[in-house]
Amino acid sequence: MPSPAPAQPSDRLVLLNPGPVNVHDDVRAAMASPDQCHREPEAAALIRRVREKATRIAGGDERHTSVLLAGSGTAALEAAFSSIVPADGRILILDNGNYGERLWRIVDVHGIPHVRMEFGWCDPIDVAAVDKALADDPSITHVGLVHHETSTGRLNPLREIGEVVARHGRQLAVDAISSLGSEELDLVADHIDWCVGTANKCLEGLPGVSFVTASRARLDALESVAPNTFYLDLYGHYISQDRKNAPLFTPALQVMTALEEALDRSLAEGVKVRGERYTALAERIRAGLAERGVRFLLPADQRANSVTNVYVPDGMTYEQLHDGLKAEGYVVYSTQEQLAGVFRVANMGQLSPAAIDGFLAAFDRVVAELGDAQA
């Protein structure tokens, strides 16, 4: 069982950005796996194992499987959202942040018929409005949702939306890139038809592999949907990996080996326990920043367990704060232009309580030094 309180190496930057994350030494060591040909039986066996473990972490069973992509989470998103909507279908994109907007940009660039519902970056999704939109428009066949909208740190109401979408007989496609592995999510209980995940966030792997998890029935049905892209054709990857037992194109085998180690650790720790570990770290961050008078973007009950969005203290810029903290060994993350003056502190990955305390102490030093310089 992985330790709930990992040690933080003193010679490594503490990554408080929402992915990539600080990983366990065993995950990093797996990157040094031997050179191998991707068309050999060992590679095929690795792909099968990783697909099965990724499916399990999403709550899937023998009816489900995962399709692996060489690329960041956006590669898997584009593979899913460009592949699942038939020519006579239409997708409803639920947008309340940067990553909801990204879903819209993906379907828009591929010319996929869509409807975009914008709720505002700091506003929750109105489930009743989604219900009405589906009731009023029978041409909508799919709904796209970001589970954890890290641009604001908001956790969207996955289960409630899943129940509404299922009741209307539509398909739900979920960007779970920043939630899978630490937030409650279940393919069956949440009525998820298409779930997109990545290695390098709450699963605590390294960047370079992402995946789409779905039922085999849904994937088989893609045979009748004409592809909109060549490299990211989801059905093509599925057929090659599942029926031909071979990758469609060259995979990132070393990164995949590291992902398998990360998945083994994730499954051993369990999503519930990892979520509790992350929650404890997030509460430590939030309590410390609250004591320092920092203002939060969202109310406490709307935040996910792995990212906290806060305003830069008065009298300094984000760049000054970031650079000062990085010089101290801690990396925080900006938000997009729509939320100027807000930054993100993530607690994904192998972080210890001591690392959080170190960050807060460094925060104090940087704020004091900038204050002294301006005095």
Present the secondary structure layout:
Blueprint (H helix, E strand, L loop, with lengths): L13 E2 L9 H6 L10 H17 L6 E7 L2 H9 L9 E5 L2 H12 L4 E5 L8 H10 L5 E5 L1 E2 L4 E2 L2 H10 L3 E5 L18 E5 L10 E7 H6 L12 H9 L10 H17 L1 H21 L15 E5 L6 H10 L2 E2 L1 E2 L7 E5 L6 H22 L1
Parallel strand pairs: 1-12, 3-4, 3-5, 5-8, 8-9
Antiparallel strand pairs: 2-10, 6-7, 9-10, 11-14, 13-14
Describe this structure in words.
This protein has 375 residues and is α/β, with parallel strands linked by helices. It has two domains: 14-23 and 270-374, Aspartate Aminotransferase, domain 1 (Alpha-Beta Complex); 25-268, 3-Layer(aba) Sandwich (Aspartate Aminotransferase, domain 2). It is 40% helix and 16% strand. It contains twelve helices and 14 strands. The protein has helices at residues 25-30, 41-57, 73-81, 98-109, 127-136, 158-167, 216-221, 234-242, 253-269, 271-291, 318-327, 353-374, and strands at residues 14-15, 64-70, 91-95, 114-118, 142-146, 148-149, 154-155, 171-175, 194-198, 209-215, 307-311, 330-331, 333-334, 342-346. Strand 13 (333-334) and strand 14 form a beta hairpin. The chain is globular, with a radius of gyration of 21 Å. The model has no long low-confidence stretch (mean pLDDT 95).
